[in-house]
Amino acid sequence: MSNPVKTPTLYRIFNLCVASDLALPLPVIEGEPVVEIVEGAVTPRGAALWRAEPPFAFACFRDDDAIVLDWPEARFRVAATRVVVDASDRIVAAGMLVPAVWSVVMAARGVESLHGCAVARAGRAVAVLGASGAGKSSAGLAMLDRDWHVVTDDLLVLDDAGRAVPGPPFLRLCTNGEHGRAGEPDAGGKLRVATPGVPAPVPLTGMVILHDDYTECVRLRGSAAVAALLDQVYAPMVTHADQSRRRFELAVDLAARTAVFGAPPRSLTPETIERIAQENAA
Amino acid sequence: MTYQAPTHIHSRAVHDELVLLDARQDAYFGLNPTGAVAWSALTAGRSPEAAAAEISAQFDVAPEVARIDVAALVDQLVARGLLEPAGA
Questions:
Q1: Which of A137, A242, A254, B53 lies deepest, with the highest CB count within 10 Å?
Q2: Residue A119, Ramachandran bin (φ over 0: left; ψ between -120 and 50: alpha; else beta)
Q3: Residue B52 is part of a domain; what is its CATH number?
Q4: Residue B87, in any domain of the structure
Q5: Chain B residues with beta carbon closer than 8 angstroms to that of A242
Q6: Is residue B88 one of the residues assigned to a domain?
Q7: Which one of A222, A238, A251 has the shortest CB-CB distance to B17?
Q8: ipTM, 2 decimals?
Protein backbone atom coordinates (compact mmCIF):
# COMPACT_ATOMS: atom_id res chain seq x y z
CA MET A 1 0.00 0.00 0.00
CA SER A 2 1.51 3.36 -1.00
CA ASN A 3 1.46 6.54 1.01
CA PRO A 4 -1.00 9.17 -0.18
CA VAL A 5 0.67 11.90 -2.25
CA LYS A 6 0.40 15.28 -0.59
CA THR A 7 -0.76 18.06 -2.87
CA PRO A 8 0.47 21.47 -1.76
CA THR A 9 -2.07 24.25 -1.44
CA LEU A 10 -1.38 27.62 -3.07
CA TYR A 11 -1.50 30.87 -1.13
CA ARG A 12 -0.51 34.44 -1.86
CA ILE A 13 1.72 36.22 0.67
CA PHE A 14 3.06 39.71 -0.07
CA ASN A 15 2.61 39.25 -3.82
CA LEU A 16 4.37 35.86 -3.83
CA CYS A 17 2.51 32.73 -4.85
CA VAL A 18 3.42 30.08 -2.31
CA ALA A 19 2.87 26.31 -2.48
CA SER A 20 2.64 24.87 1.01
CA ASP A 21 2.24 21.44 2.58
CA LEU A 22 1.55 23.32 5.79
CA ALA A 23 -1.99 24.69 6.18
CA LEU A 24 -1.57 28.48 6.41
CA PRO A 25 -4.06 30.98 7.82
CA LEU A 26 -4.41 32.62 4.42
CA PRO A 27 -6.90 32.60 1.54
CA VAL A 28 -6.27 29.85 -1.01
CA ILE A 29 -5.52 30.97 -4.57
CA GLU A 30 -4.59 29.52 -7.94
CA GLY A 31 -1.35 30.23 -9.77
CA GLU A 32 2.26 29.18 -10.22
CA PRO A 33 4.27 28.81 -7.00
CA VAL A 34 7.24 31.10 -6.47
CA VAL A 35 8.13 29.81 -3.00
CA GLU A 36 7.62 26.25 -1.76
CA ILE A 37 6.97 25.38 1.87
CA VAL A 38 7.71 21.76 2.69
CA GLU A 39 7.88 19.86 5.94
CA GLY A 40 11.18 18.13 6.69
CA ALA A 41 14.12 17.93 9.04
CA VAL A 42 16.05 21.15 9.70
CA THR A 43 19.29 21.06 11.69
CA PRO A 44 21.30 24.09 12.81
CA ARG A 45 25.02 23.68 12.09
CA GLY A 46 28.08 25.66 13.09
CA ALA A 47 28.28 28.90 15.01
CA ALA A 48 25.18 31.04 15.35
CA LEU A 49 25.03 33.96 12.96
CA TRP A 50 22.91 35.82 15.51
CA ARG A 51 21.43 34.93 18.86
CA ALA A 52 18.70 36.79 20.75
CA GLU A 53 19.32 38.07 24.25
CA PRO A 54 17.72 35.97 27.03
CA PRO A 55 14.91 35.34 27.85
CA PHE A 56 14.21 35.03 24.11
CA ALA A 57 15.31 31.63 22.84
CA PHE A 58 16.04 32.30 19.20
CA ALA A 59 19.13 31.95 17.04
CA CYS A 60 19.86 31.87 13.33
CA PHE A 61 22.54 30.01 11.40
CA ARG A 62 23.89 30.05 7.85
CA ASP A 63 23.49 26.82 5.86
CA ASP A 64 24.89 27.15 2.33
CA ASP A 65 22.48 29.45 0.48
CA ALA A 66 19.91 29.35 3.26
CA ILE A 67 19.35 30.70 6.76
CA VAL A 68 18.20 28.38 9.54
CA LEU A 69 15.88 30.05 12.05
CA ASP A 70 15.83 28.13 15.33
CA TRP A 71 13.09 28.56 17.93
CA PRO A 72 12.23 25.99 20.63
CA GLU A 73 8.84 25.43 18.96
CA ALA A 74 9.99 25.16 15.36
CA ARG A 75 12.90 25.43 12.96
CA PHE A 76 12.83 26.85 9.45
CA ARG A 77 15.41 26.61 6.66
CA VAL A 78 14.81 29.68 4.54
CA ALA A 79 16.05 30.24 1.00
CA ALA A 80 14.69 32.55 -1.68
CA THR A 81 12.40 29.96 -3.27
CA ARG A 82 12.03 27.26 -0.65
CA VAL A 83 11.25 27.11 3.06
CA VAL A 84 11.60 23.83 4.95
CA VAL A 85 9.65 23.59 8.20
CA ASP A 86 10.59 21.33 11.11
CA ALA A 87 7.95 21.48 13.84
CA SER A 88 5.93 19.05 15.89
CA ASP A 89 3.00 21.47 16.06
CA ARG A 90 1.98 22.42 12.52
CA ILE A 91 -0.46 25.10 13.66
CA VAL A 92 2.23 26.84 15.70
CA ALA A 93 4.64 26.58 12.77
CA ALA A 94 2.08 28.08 10.38
CA GLY A 95 1.57 30.99 12.76
CA MET A 96 5.32 31.60 13.02
CA LEU A 97 5.73 31.50 9.27
CA VAL A 98 3.53 34.52 8.83
CA PRO A 99 4.91 37.03 9.58
CA ALA A 100 8.11 36.19 11.54
CA VAL A 101 9.80 33.83 9.08
CA TRP A 102 8.52 35.75 6.09
CA SER A 103 10.78 38.74 6.74
CA VAL A 104 13.74 36.42 6.08
CA VAL A 105 12.10 35.02 2.93
CA MET A 106 11.76 38.60 1.69
CA ALA A 107 15.39 39.37 2.64
CA ALA A 108 16.50 36.28 0.70
CA ARG A 109 14.66 37.76 -2.29
CA GLY A 110 16.37 41.14 -1.85
CA VAL A 111 13.50 42.95 -0.15
CA GLU A 112 13.75 44.54 3.29
CA SER A 113 10.68 44.75 5.50
CA LEU A 114 9.63 46.96 8.38
CA HIS A 115 7.73 46.30 11.60
CA GLY A 116 4.46 48.03 10.97
CA CYS A 117 0.81 48.12 10.10
CA ALA A 118 -0.58 49.99 7.07
CA VAL A 119 -4.14 51.14 6.47
CA ALA A 120 -5.54 52.75 3.34
CA ARG A 121 -8.50 54.70 2.07
CA ALA A 122 -9.12 56.18 -1.35
CA GLY A 123 -5.88 54.79 -2.75
CA ARG A 124 -3.59 56.31 -0.11
CA ALA A 125 -1.98 54.48 2.80
CA VAL A 126 -0.61 55.52 6.19
CA ALA A 127 1.83 53.17 7.92
CA VAL A 128 2.21 52.90 11.69
CA LEU A 129 5.55 51.47 12.86
CA GLY A 130 6.81 50.47 16.28
CA ALA A 131 7.76 47.70 18.65
CA SER A 132 5.30 45.07 19.81
CA GLY A 133 2.75 46.66 22.12
CA ALA A 134 3.31 50.18 20.78
CA GLY A 135 -0.22 50.32 19.40
CA LYS A 136 0.24 49.66 15.66
CA SER A 137 -2.57 47.17 15.22
CA SER A 138 -4.89 49.01 17.61
CA ALA A 139 -4.40 52.15 15.52
CA GLY A 140 -5.24 50.12 12.41
CA LEU A 141 -8.30 48.61 14.05
CA ALA A 142 -9.66 52.04 14.94
CA MET A 143 -9.57 52.99 11.25
CA LEU A 144 -11.80 50.12 10.10
CA ASP A 145 -14.94 51.86 11.34
CA ARG A 146 -14.00 54.95 9.31
CA ASP A 147 -14.01 53.18 5.94
CA TRP A 148 -10.28 52.44 5.91
CA HIS A 149 -8.89 49.02 4.97
CA VAL A 150 -5.94 47.06 6.30
CA VAL A 151 -3.10 46.76 3.77
CA THR A 152 -0.88 44.73 6.08
CA ASP A 153 -0.22 44.20 9.77
CA ASP A 154 3.02 43.53 11.60
CA LEU A 155 5.18 42.96 8.50
CA LEU A 156 5.33 45.95 6.14
CA VAL A 157 6.76 45.22 2.70
CA LEU A 158 7.19 47.93 0.07
CA ASP A 159 7.48 47.40 -3.68
CA ASP A 160 10.01 49.11 -5.97
CA ALA A 161 7.77 52.18 -6.22
CA GLY A 162 7.60 52.51 -2.43
CA ARG A 163 3.98 51.29 -2.26
CA ALA A 164 2.75 49.18 0.65
CA VAL A 165 2.24 45.59 -0.55
CA PRO A 166 -0.92 43.86 0.69
CA GLY A 167 -0.19 41.30 3.37
CA PRO A 168 -2.34 38.65 5.04
CA PRO A 169 -5.90 39.99 5.53
CA PHE A 170 -5.94 40.12 9.31
CA LEU A 171 -4.91 42.28 12.26
CA ARG A 172 -2.97 40.81 15.19
CA LEU A 173 -4.49 42.20 18.38
CA CYS A 174 -3.98 41.73 22.11
CA THR A 175 -6.00 38.89 23.61
CA ASN A 176 -7.37 41.02 26.46
CA GLY A 177 -10.64 41.48 24.57
CA GLU A 178 -10.74 45.26 25.09
CA HIS A 179 -11.20 45.74 21.36
CA GLY A 180 -14.35 43.59 21.36
CA ARG A 181 -13.37 41.60 18.25
CA ALA A 182 -13.49 37.86 17.72
CA GLY A 183 -10.60 35.99 16.15
CA GLU A 184 -8.20 33.07 16.26
CA PRO A 185 -5.28 32.88 18.74
CA ASP A 186 -1.92 32.71 16.93
CA ALA A 187 1.53 31.40 17.83
CA GLY A 188 2.73 34.85 18.91
CA GLY A 189 0.15 35.17 21.66
CA LYS A 190 -1.99 37.56 19.66
CA LEU A 191 -5.55 37.31 18.40
CA ARG A 192 -5.76 37.09 14.60
CA VAL A 193 -8.81 39.10 13.49
CA ALA A 194 -9.92 38.82 9.86
CA THR A 195 -10.32 42.14 8.05
CA PRO A 196 -11.18 43.20 4.51
CA GLY A 197 -7.90 43.65 2.61
CA VAL A 198 -6.90 45.65 -0.46
CA PRO A 199 -6.32 44.10 -3.89
CA ALA A 200 -3.12 45.92 -4.93
CA PRO A 201 -0.14 47.86 -3.54
CA VAL A 202 -1.05 51.30 -2.19
CA PRO A 203 1.14 54.47 -2.28
CA LEU A 204 2.23 55.62 1.16
CA THR A 205 1.14 59.10 2.20
CA GLY A 206 2.71 59.12 5.63
CA MET A 207 4.46 57.00 8.22
CA VAL A 208 4.18 57.31 11.99
CA ILE A 209 6.79 55.76 14.27
CA LEU A 210 5.52 54.99 17.77
CA HIS A 211 8.40 55.25 20.23
CA ASP A 212 9.20 56.48 23.74
CA ASP A 213 11.59 59.04 22.23
CA TYR A 214 8.62 61.27 21.39
CA THR A 215 6.34 63.17 23.76
CA GLU A 216 3.96 64.32 21.01
CA CYS A 217 3.39 63.74 17.32
CA VAL A 218 6.22 65.52 15.50
CA ARG A 219 7.41 65.59 11.90
CA LEU A 220 10.84 63.96 11.42
CA ARG A 221 13.17 65.12 8.68
CA GLY A 222 16.59 64.29 7.32
CA SER A 223 18.86 62.01 9.31
CA ALA A 224 16.38 61.90 12.22
CA ALA A 225 13.77 60.33 9.94
CA VAL A 226 16.31 57.91 8.47
CA ALA A 227 17.54 56.83 11.91
CA ALA A 228 13.98 56.34 13.17
CA LEU A 229 13.09 54.21 10.13
CA LEU A 230 16.26 52.11 10.42
CA ASP A 231 15.21 51.34 13.96
CA GLN A 232 12.03 49.73 12.60
CA VAL A 233 13.46 47.05 10.30
CA TYR A 234 11.54 43.85 11.00
CA ALA A 235 14.40 41.52 11.95
CA PRO A 236 17.39 42.87 13.89
CA MET A 237 19.92 40.44 12.41
CA VAL A 238 21.78 40.81 9.13
CA THR A 239 21.43 37.50 7.29
CA HIS A 240 22.14 38.35 3.66
CA ALA A 241 24.83 40.10 1.65
CA ASP A 242 24.30 43.81 1.05
CA GLN A 243 21.38 43.83 3.50
CA SER A 244 22.71 46.84 5.45
CA ARG A 245 22.97 48.77 2.20
CA ARG A 246 19.42 47.83 1.18
CA ARG A 247 18.04 48.89 4.56
CA PHE A 248 19.93 52.17 4.29
CA GLU A 249 18.58 52.86 0.79
CA LEU A 250 15.04 51.95 1.85
CA ALA A 251 15.14 54.30 4.86
CA VAL A 252 16.64 57.17 2.84
CA ASP A 253 14.12 56.75 0.01
CA LEU A 254 11.20 56.64 2.46
CA ALA A 255 12.47 59.68 4.38
CA ALA A 256 12.91 61.61 1.13
CA ARG A 257 9.52 60.91 -0.43
CA THR A 258 7.15 60.21 2.49
CA ALA A 259 6.12 62.36 5.44
CA VAL A 260 7.59 60.66 8.52
CA PHE A 261 6.31 61.40 12.03
CA GLY A 262 7.28 60.28 15.51
CA ALA A 263 4.67 59.86 18.24
CA PRO A 264 4.48 58.31 21.73
CA PRO A 265 3.37 54.67 21.96
CA ARG A 266 -0.40 54.07 22.07
CA SER A 267 -1.06 57.76 21.38
CA LEU A 268 -2.27 57.65 17.80
CA THR A 269 -5.90 58.61 17.22
CA PRO A 270 -7.94 58.05 14.05
CA GLU A 271 -8.17 61.82 13.67
CA THR A 272 -4.35 62.11 13.62
CA ILE A 273 -4.04 59.39 10.97
CA GLU A 274 -6.69 61.07 8.82
CA ARG A 275 -5.02 64.47 9.25
CA ILE A 276 -1.66 63.02 8.17
CA ALA A 277 -3.33 61.42 5.15
CA GLN A 278 -5.07 64.66 4.15
CA GLU A 279 -2.18 67.05 4.72
CA ASN A 280 0.38 64.93 2.91
CA ALA A 281 -1.65 63.69 -0.05
CA ALA A 282 0.21 64.54 -3.25
CA MET B 1 45.80 67.49 2.09
CA THR B 2 42.73 65.95 0.45
CA TYR B 3 40.48 63.06 1.49
CA GLN B 4 38.26 60.36 0.07
CA ALA B 5 35.52 58.08 1.36
CA PRO B 6 36.48 54.39 1.52
CA THR B 7 34.49 52.24 -0.92
CA HIS B 8 32.44 50.64 1.87
CA ILE B 9 31.13 54.03 2.98
CA HIS B 10 27.90 55.02 1.25
CA SER B 11 26.34 58.47 1.46
CA ARG B 12 22.90 59.80 0.55
CA ALA B 13 21.44 63.28 0.83
CA VAL B 14 18.04 63.50 2.48
CA HIS B 15 16.39 66.88 2.72
CA ASP B 16 19.37 69.18 3.43
CA GLU B 17 21.28 66.64 5.50
CA LEU B 18 23.50 63.69 4.69
CA VAL B 19 23.35 60.14 6.01
CA LEU B 20 26.30 57.77 5.85
CA LEU B 21 26.42 53.98 5.99
CA ASP B 22 29.52 52.07 7.03
CA ALA B 23 28.64 48.78 5.33
CA ARG B 24 31.41 46.87 7.10
CA GLN B 25 30.30 47.89 10.59
CA ASP B 26 26.57 48.07 9.78
CA ALA B 27 26.64 51.55 11.34
CA TYR B 28 24.82 54.68 10.26
CA PHE B 29 25.76 58.35 10.76
CA GLY B 30 24.08 61.69 10.06
CA LEU B 31 25.56 65.03 9.09
CA ASN B 32 23.70 68.32 9.51
CA PRO B 33 23.45 70.80 6.60
CA THR B 34 26.87 72.37 7.20
CA GLY B 35 28.44 68.95 7.68
CA ALA B 36 26.79 67.83 4.45
CA VAL B 37 28.38 70.73 2.55
CA ALA B 38 31.77 69.91 4.08
CA TRP B 39 31.40 66.21 3.15
CA SER B 40 30.46 67.03 -0.43
CA ALA B 41 33.46 69.32 -0.82
CA LEU B 42 35.90 66.94 0.85
CA THR B 43 34.79 63.87 -1.11
CA ALA B 44 34.97 65.93 -4.31
CA GLY B 45 38.70 66.20 -3.63
CA ARG B 46 38.74 69.70 -2.17
CA SER B 47 40.90 70.56 0.83
CA PRO B 48 39.47 71.23 4.31
CA GLU B 49 40.31 74.92 3.80
CA ALA B 50 38.29 74.99 0.58
CA ALA B 51 35.42 73.16 2.30
CA ALA B 52 35.48 75.76 5.09
CA ALA B 53 35.38 78.57 2.55
CA GLU B 54 32.33 76.98 0.93
CA ILE B 55 30.57 76.79 4.28
CA SER B 56 31.33 80.45 4.98
CA ALA B 57 29.91 81.36 1.58
CA GLN B 58 26.70 79.36 2.09
CA PHE B 59 26.02 79.88 5.80
CA ASP B 60 26.36 82.71 8.29
CA VAL B 61 29.61 81.32 9.67
CA ALA B 62 32.85 83.30 10.11
CA PRO B 63 35.74 81.87 8.01
CA GLU B 64 37.91 81.15 11.05
CA VAL B 65 35.07 79.36 12.85
CA ALA B 66 34.33 77.34 9.70
CA ARG B 67 37.99 76.37 9.37
CA ILE B 68 38.18 75.15 12.97
CA ASP B 69 34.86 73.29 12.69
CA VAL B 70 35.82 71.57 9.43
CA ALA B 71 39.17 70.52 10.87
CA ALA B 72 37.37 69.00 13.88
CA LEU B 73 34.85 67.28 11.58
CA VAL B 74 37.63 65.80 9.44
CA ASP B 75 39.32 64.45 12.58
CA GLN B 76 36.07 62.78 13.65
CA LEU B 77 35.33 61.35 10.22
CA VAL B 78 38.83 59.94 9.90
CA ALA B 79 38.74 58.52 13.44
CA ARG B 80 35.50 56.69 12.61
CA GLY B 81 36.88 55.40 9.31
CA LEU B 82 34.36 57.34 7.25
CA LEU B 83 37.05 59.37 5.52
CA GLU B 84 40.68 58.61 4.68
CA PRO B 85 43.56 60.52 3.13
CA ALA B 86 43.31 60.48 -0.67
CA GLY B 87 45.33 57.67 -2.22
CA ALA B 88 45.24 55.56 0.94
A1: A137
A2: beta
A3: 3.90.930
A4: no
A5: 23
A6: no
A7: A222
A8: 0.89
